[in-house]
Design a protein that fits this description.
CATH architecture of the largest domain: 3-Layer(aba) Sandwich
Number of helices: 11
Helix content: 25-40%
Number of domains: 3
Pfam families: NYN, OST-HTH
Radius of gyration: 26 Å
Structural class: alpha/beta
GO molecular function: RNA nuclease activity
Shape: elongated
Organism: Parablautia intestinalis
CATH class of the largest domain: Alpha Beta
Oligomer: single chain
Protein name: NYN domain-containing protein
CATH superfamily of the largest domain: 5'-nuclease
Order of helices and strands: EHEHEHEHEHEHEHHEEHEHHEE
Strand content: 15-25%
Number of strands: 12
């Protein structure tokens, strides 16, 4: 499989020069960098730190004088160059390095043309730009990303672990309901498609497998370099819970038992019970899906469960 070719376009107005080595190293994991350009006013004192890095890393500076207040001119030049490069047909994707939302529409436009768009920026980068990219990387995670993390979520912009764990659970249930096992690699790809700025380094990890394992919710099984993921104790506990419901319904006799009462009994006995683990959005739907159990409305229009 041939390496993809990327155009690297850096907005020097809001990105520190200290990141350049890490930016190039990170982008090398995606493919070959064929264009390396950085945009700013090189006559300003703000750009001084960048000047020493440009020759060393073979990055071409593009001069844009600040003729007006703000940096709209710099942004416009970068956008025009990006579209020119797009129409050459020489690249498979773009890496846009910026910490503001000015390039959100550009990222969306490039993706509409079939380009892969890697966004990079600091933690302060607005979510609008993050989600417009195919993938977004926090610059603070690059280099010595293991320092001062302690396994905690980094900043306010980081997606909560609960959201990610719920997404993983839904992916597993979706596949298992179709009779398919779930490979960890495909889970990682789905998460990035859902949340372009998802990165285990945001949580102090270097491997997705370790991040998932530490959740305590999932089991990983490795066979011939392929890691498969399962819900923890899912196979054993699901049938046990169904049998428990059947037994309660059987003992309730012909009149059956109210759905609310049945729900309380199940949740009290199984503290970690979640109907979503069974592929249902409501408890009543879960009960309805159990063999030999049916739902009916009593004279007060309340749902009850009884044995068929």
């Amino acid at each position: 499989m041939e390496n993809k070719h990327f155009a690297l376009l850096i907005d020097a107005d809001n990105i520190s020069a200290k990141y350049i080595g890490d930016i190039l190293e990170e982008l090398s994991t995606y493919g070959i960098t064929t264009y390396k350009r950085i945009y700013g006013d090189w006559t300003s004192t703000q750009a001084t730190k960048w000047k020493g890095e440009l020759l060393e890393n073979s990055v071409i500076p593009v001069q844009q004088f600040s003729n007006t207040v703000g940096k709209n001119a710099t942004d416009s030049t970068l956008i025009i160059d990006a579209m020119d490069i797009l129409y050459t047909g020489n690249v498979d994707g773009f890496c846009i390095v910026s910490s503001d939302s000015d390039f959100t529409r550009l990222a969306s436009r490039l993706r509409e043309s079939g380009m892969e768009v890697i966004g990079m920026g600091e933690e302060k980068t607005p979510r609008s730009f993050r989600v417009a990219c195919t993938r977004f990387v926090n610059l603070e995670n690059l280099g010595n990303q293991d320092e001062d993390k302690d396994g905690k979520d980094s900043k306010d912009n980081t997606i909560s672990r609960e959201v990610i764990y719920n997404a993983i659970t839904n992916i597993i249930n979706e596949n298992e309901n179709k009779g398919k096992s779930v490979e960890l690699a495909s889970v990682g790809n789905r998460l990035v498609n859902m949340y372009p700025d998802f990165d285990v380094r945001n949580y102090g990890y270097s491997l997705l497998s370790k991040f998932v394992e530490d959740a305590g919710l999932f089991l990983l099984e490795k066979r011939q370099n392929v890691i498969t993921i399962y819900l923890k104790d899912n196979k054993q506990s699901q049938e046990e819970i169904r049998n428990y419901v059947r037994e309660i319904v059987r003992k309730a006799g012909k009149k059956g038992i109210g759905i609310s009462e049945l729900s309380n009994l199940v949740y009290n006995k199984y503290a970690n019970f979640n109907v979503k683990d069974f592929g249902y959005s409501q408890f009543s739907k879960f009960v309805q899906g159990i063999e030999n159990v049916e739902l009916y409305q009593d004279k007060n229009d309340r749902k009850r469960a009884r044995e068929k």
